[in-house]
Specification:
Number of domains: 2
Largest sheet: 8 strands, mixed
Strand content: 25-35%
Helix content: 10-25%
CATH architecture of the largest domain: 3-Layer(aba) Sandwich
CATH topology of the largest domain: Rossmann fold
CATH superfamily of the largest domain: Alpha/Beta hydrolase fold, catalytic domain
Radius of gyration: 22 Å
Strand order of the largest sheet: 1-2-4-3-5-6-7-8
Distance between the termini: 23 Å
Amino acid sequence: MTRIACAVALLLAPPAFAATFDVSQPPKDGEKYKSADFRLWVPDGVKSLRAVIVRQHGCGRKGLDHADDLQWQALAAKYDAALLGTHFQQATECKDWFDPANGSERAFFDALAHFAKESKHPELVAAPWAVWGHSGGSLWACHMTNRHPERVVAVWGRSQALTEYGEMALGVPVVFNYGTGEKAGQFAGVHKNSQEAFAKYRPKGAPWAVAIDPKSSHDCRNSRALAVLFFDKMLTARLPKDGVKLKSLADGPFWRGEADTLAVLSPEVSRGNPLADSWLIDEPFAKAWQEYCKTGDVTDTTPPPVPTAVTATAGDKGVSLTWAAVADIESGLKQFAIRKNGAKVGTAGGEKVKGNPNGFVQVWNYGDEPEPKATAFAFADPDGKAGNQYTLTAVNHAGLESKPSAPATAK
């Protein structure tokens, strides 16, 4: 088993079934940011992009890798959406880029226009955005919501928020997310902006929620477990079948969550003040919100997709396997189990290095960037030979295993 485990080879390359594009947008005269780089991922076979999922990093982070994230790519592909990662660098302070008026808005629009031409998807120029932001990136997301509310599907604001919003911005669903550890230390008080914004505008009917992670500080930890579900719900509810005008969520029965008790209430329950509670779109999301606020996690009960396109090639040094895989939207990919002639012979995942000590396919760090940054999948069985039959199963981060792949006979 040790020899087999050592033979695992994880190849670093963009997924072959999709397209990735990169562009830089230097600052123009009068703009304050230092540099701006963008990476766009487009799902394979999409005819018309319906939206862009924007992953906006925090100050001091390098966010290009967000476009390489397998779990967020799976969400984007579900909605024929592109996935955008950015890397803004400030000249002197974070506000140099998180305030769009300082040039980052212009750079963002120019990058989208460039990608529209390069990818041959002209609809990118007018497509709506679902915006995830961490720290300074959350402030950028809130600014852009104020400036372009008609373009924003929803916002996940991790660890920062503006406290002033225009009337049109109040129609955009928002989750203000932070950790209890941010009430002390270097980021003491960061949570107050989220609380102030919620307390001021939720009573005006804004479809907003507050989700507090009981286990984290300014780091993102496992917030993606709820964030991905949130965007899944919002993209379903707000994207039009045709055109670009987003659907309003002003009408309809919605669930709500009480801040003090973490109780979730159905539309039929009239206790308390509905406009003081978190706005939760439906029962499944309400229960996920409740679990996250209590435990910092969201339970995944569904197995990941089955690996496909398995090939087995016999040679002088054994059998080499390759395959294709799509991440589980709910909890991502952790590793793959390899079976030869029905018996498990090893697992495949990422290299065991600092930040990924268990060798998982992908793990996430302080700013929720994926590690390793991009992956293709391969495994070497030094004891394999022609005629051996191999199957693979995918394992998600909840530990659930997919059904076996179609068998591949080594040739």
